[in-house]
Request: fold
Amino acid sequence: MAVTERDIQKAEEQMDALQRNGFALSARYDSDADRIVIELSTGVQVAFPPRLAEGLADADPGDLAVIEISPSGLGLHWPALDADLYVPAVLQGILGSKGWMAAQLGAAGGRVRSAVKAASARENGRKGGRPPKAAAN
Reply:
């Protein structure tokens, strides 16, 4: 498949549109606050704890401190961790792949404690607990 001049022009237009919403000028790990801090071209700073991002959660501070910014400013890369984040996604609160984010939400839901959940667990216990899963045929 050949890349045409129109394909290149379209890709450049898409890149310009993404960059208008802000791109990374700098990124650093603030060890005192335990935060990744991204300075955007819009003057906005975005900060988040590394434990919230796929590939960064269990990293050593030294590995978190080395962050490369892609030439477009739309990507961040941690070479020692082989981890990447897409800046437009970070701005939307997306700090990992769909599968990873779904697992984080599921785990958070499983940790929720409420009176309703406790009552339901007690009721299931009185009935003998959770029924076994049926064997798939």
Summary: The mean pLDDT is 83.
